[in-house]
Each structure stands twice: as C-alpha cells, then as structure tokens.
C-alpha cells in the first residue's frame, strides 16, 4: 500500500495575524476618540464615561452639587461657582481678615499673609492664652467671633481651615516634656476649632486641628521675646480647587452588590 503525501496549502493561513492587528488599530482609534471627547469635560460627558466603565454604578446626587456642566466663561449661574469666582472670594476673605486686624489694633499680635490659594493667620499667645494654659481668653473670643463670621459668609469657597498649635521650648538646652508639650499644643488648637464650630455654620469636616508643639519655631528660644513669638496659634485657610475636585468625582459612584 502506497501513502500519498498531503500537499501543503499555498499560504492561505498567513493573513490570520491581520485580525489581531486590525482589532488593535480599532481599539487605538476608539481610545483616541475617547480622549478627544474628554478634551472639553462636561457633567454629561463625565457621567457617560464613568457609566461605560461601571454600568452598575449609581451617582450620589448630593456629592457633586458644585458641578452642573458649566463652561469656563460662565461666572454666575445657579448652584455653580467657577475657579475665577473662588479666587476673587479668597481675595475678599484676605482683605476682610486684614481689615479686622486693623480695626482691632492687633497688628503687633496678629499677622495675615497669603500664598497662592491659601491664607495664613498667626495669633501670638498673648492674644489667645495665658502661659501653659489652653483656655481661650475673653479678648480672643471676640476676635474668633469676627473670624467665624467672615468664614461663614464665604464658606462656599473654602476647602479647609487648619488650626495649628505651637509652643516654645522653656529651657534652651532642654526640650519640653513630650506629653505636656504635645497635649498643650493640641488642646489649644482643638479649643480654637471647637469655638469656630460653635459660632459658625462652616462644614465641620473642613475644620482640622493639629498640635505641633515646640518643633517649628519662628524665633530663637534663648530669649523671652523669641519664646513669645514661638508660642502661637496658626490658621491656614485653603480655597477650593475645582480641577482637583473634578478629578475625584469618580469616587462618588458606588458599586451595587
């Protein structure tokens, strides 16, 4: 019995790689079309993109009230603010705080400065607290009442109010007792935050207190004058950043089990 060899086909299967290549090109085209469509982001586009990746997600209707599909050149509309408006309101906040310090003749004890989207207020201890005490003075309560009122008026444009408590090193050659130092600094900043929360409708989630202690001095601890400058409370007020908020919008969607 003789065996016949099966003839090899003349190259009909050589084009199979074209299927994979074609699929890859198609996917790349879809990717660039998607990127182009996102070049101008609106609320409707963003929802469609997120839903395409997560069909089972549901939007949180209360988490994104500040973004309603506004364009960059729209400054006034219901339920929306632009970054330009936020920057203007932070300018107003800075001016009002500065004027408050002048009206109370506290330029020597309270300083108000600004760096970009943040406003820094530094209160000397002589204004707020007695030595080694976290109890807010009566005169300081009046100042904090004014500050709380200003914050409340402009709360829509504020991202965060961080209060830092600082102490001085009592003896130049020996650090303070760690527990006493940290506790005093934390109690002072916490009491300031509590006062603001009790006298202002600003979202409490935006209020943060930190006890720094003796570890970030602004002057020498070898003199009484330097130690007085180091015993202080600082307040850092940050304005909202809409671009950052938009980048976090995907966190507003929850997966349904």
Number of DSSP strand runs: 7
Q: Stretches where pLDDT falls below 50 for ≥5 residues?
A: 66-78
**Helix amount, in percent?**
40-55%
Q: In order across it, which strands form the biggest sheet?
A: 2-3-6-4-5
Query: What structural category arises from helix and sheet content?
Result: alpha+beta
Mean pLDDT: 82
Distance between the termini: 68 Å
Roughly what fraction of the amino acids lie in strands? 15-25%
Q: How is the biggest beta sheet arranged? A: 5 strands, mixed
Outline type: elongated
Run of helices and strands = HHEHEEHHEHEHEHE
From the alpha carbons, calculate the radius of gyration and give it in angstroms.
Answer: 30 Å
Tally of helical segments: 8
Any key phrases for this structure?
257 residues; two-stranded antiparallel sheet; 8 helices; elongated
Overview of the structural elements:
It is a single chain. This protein has a 5-stranded mixed beta sheet with strand order 2-3-6-4-5. It has a two-stranded antiparallel sheet with strand order 1-7. A hairpin with a 2-residue loop joins strand 2 (110-115) and strand 3. The chain is an alpha+beta fold and 257 residues long. The N and C termini lie far apart (68 Å). It has helices at 17-37, 43-53, 83-103, 125-128, 138-153, 178-198, 224-230, 242-247, and strands spanning 58-59, 110-115, 118-124, 158-166, 207-213, 232-239, 253-254. It is built from 8 helices and 7 strands; from the N terminus they run ααβαββααβαβαβαβ. Helix 5 (138-153) packs across helix 6 (178-198).
């Amino acid at each position: 019995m003789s065996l016949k060899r099966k003839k090899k086909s003349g190259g009909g299967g050589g084009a199979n790689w074209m299927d994979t290549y074609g699929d890859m090109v198609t996917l790349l085209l879809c990717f660039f079309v998607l990127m182009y469509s996102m070049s101008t982001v609106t609320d409707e586009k963003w929802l469609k993109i997120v839903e395409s990746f997560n069909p089972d997600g549901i939007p949180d209707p209360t988490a994104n009230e500040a973004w309603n599909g506004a364009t960059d050149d729209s400054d006034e509309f219901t339920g929306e603010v632009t970054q330009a408006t936020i920057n203007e309101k932070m300018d107003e906040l800075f001016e009002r705080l500065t004027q408050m310090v002048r009206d109370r003749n506290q330029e020597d004890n309270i300083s108000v400065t600004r760096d970009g989207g943040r406003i820094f207020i530094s209160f000397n201890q002589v204004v707020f607290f007695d030595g080694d005490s976290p109890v807010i003075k009566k005169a300081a309560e009046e100042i904090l009442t004014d500050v709380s009122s200003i914050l409340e008026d402009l709360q829509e444009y504020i991202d965060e109010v961080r209060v830092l408590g600082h102490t001085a090193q009592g003896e130049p050659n020996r650090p303070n007792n760690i527990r006493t130092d940290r506790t005093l600094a934390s109690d002072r900043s916490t009491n300031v935050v509590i006062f603001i929360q009790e006298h202002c409708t600003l979202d409490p989630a935006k209020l943060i207190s930190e006890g720094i202690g003796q570890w970030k001095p602004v002057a020498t601890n070898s003199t009484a004058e330097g130690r007085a400058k180091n015993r202080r409370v600082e307040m850092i007020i940050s304005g909202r950043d809409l671009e950052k908020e938009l980048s976090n919008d995907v966190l507003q969607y929850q997966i349904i089990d």
